[in-house]
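For reproducibility, we list the full input for the fe (ii) ion complex.
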Amino acid sequence: MRKSISRRDFLILTAKGVGAAVISSGLMGCNSSDGDRDVSVRFNHGVASGDPTQTAIILWTRVTPEETASINVAWEIATDAAFTNIVNSGNTLTNQQRDYTVKVDAINLTPGTQYFYRFTANGTTTSTGKTKTLPEGAIASAKLAVMSCANYPAGHFNVYNLASQMNDLDAVLHLGDYIYEYPRGGYASDNAAQLNREVLPVGELFTLDDYRTRYAQYRTDADLQSLHAGVPFITVWDDHEVTNDTYKDGAENHNEGEGDFETRKLAALQAYFEWLPIRPIAQDNELEIYRSFQIGDLVDLHMLDTRVLARDKQLDYANYISPTTGAFDGATFTQDISDTNRTMLGSEQLQWLQTQLGNSTGTWQLLGQQVLMGSMYLPAAVALSLMTLEQYTELGALAVLAGRMQANDPTLTDGEKAYFAANQDKLTDEVMAQLQLPAVPYNLDAWDGYAAERETILQTAKAYGKNLVVLAGDTHNAWASDLKDLNGDNVGVEFATSSVSSPGLEYYLNIPAASAPTYEAGIVGLIENLQYCNLRDRGFMTITFTANEAKAQWHYVDTILSDVFQEITSRSASVSVNAGDNQLTLS
Ligand SMILES: [Fe+2]
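The corresponding predicted structure, in tokenized form, follows.
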């Protein structure tokens, strides 16, 4: 029999503020007669926790009822896995209006304490989740895992599996691209059928139902479930939670034929709030996700939205290259990229961040955000794909040799002379002109495309004398950079994580696996301020903070094409920064 939702339940569920009251207090009681008691339920999507504070944690699960119904879900949180010491509990209703997701804010907890939690509905109980409140006051160390960019059809989530084996994490920071919006057969899906990881729904995501279905599929993944069940997440979205290269009122992967962008965006964000254990910063606010966390006296973590809330549209090199001559209009480009009005954060969020940086007292000021802040300028010939990195290296060396030949350099060897004679034809006028183009940003979707606002942030951290550590995802490769202001002063560092499964630069540059170290050394040599990169492996990073040091450690897996995998310890790397230095130390 198909049961309908009673009018009373409907009123409870839809009364403005009630849903948020459940989220904000977790103590909104419903007696057990609410909900449809004879509908059997399963919990197919595991449990999760998130946004820990010193005294509260968001607890999450999702009910799968056998028929449409209103389901009363009881939750418990205890200090022991046997639930003999339950410190808080309650009931809440869920139904199809929130996609049967359940989110409560368990309050009145003790700082720096491990907890266990579970949910029960109509006689069925979830597995037990483990979580932790943030510590208060003086602490010796804190350890966070940082990850981003998990594309389900690209391969197994072995990176989540590897992270779930760590038992000393205070939290996982997920910097976005938790899902991807593409249709079956789309981006990075070459092995999806073989791996039995073809996406649901079949099409690209546009509607609320589409986004919900995709989240539901991702959350059936055992590795992702296991990581969520063991450690609290602190998340922000990047572009693919909506669609590729999203900015405030559009996206690269959205056209007029696909309907109203704002409608699509709001549907995507609603599904995000339903499926992620994130606490809204205010009741019913599912648009602003920038927020801060205090981890003892060591770390003030500021999570940012550089993507959806306020970002101006990305610049596009195509608009600066003459269609007739192919010439690059560097002057106009430089003027546009330095425009002080260009924003990623929007004035409100920027002001909020500046205030936070001024008022926070933690040893480390940590920015959890999406795109690379470190300057990544490449020779224009490479950045504009006029030549490959290999060609640039070869032709650049040949041009240097030409200069020495012209100057009659007495140190020229016979071999060099012979090599030049055999290859000088390659240095055509066109090639010479390309080699002389200035260095330009590799990625206009990153902070390089919003340089003035980046400078404002760096100047703020510098003025307050803070130890600034910036985290980034988005690129699918690992990076570590010094952050310098326009005066050339060191004002912070950036650690960026590789992806969980999305392909990186090596895929686009066609870098053979064995050649990765050579390319990595080449790129580090080519990009000022870049101290480390990995252009091959999928992985995540941990950051360990003490009073003296913040240390990033990258962990990589040997494959995502099988669920049998190993960590490649030979590729592990760590880079640190000492308090007061604002400059990386390679170890
Ligand atoms: Fe990504």
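The longest helix spans residues 389-406. The two ends are 66 Å apart (CA to CA). Both points were considered when choosing residues for closer inspection.
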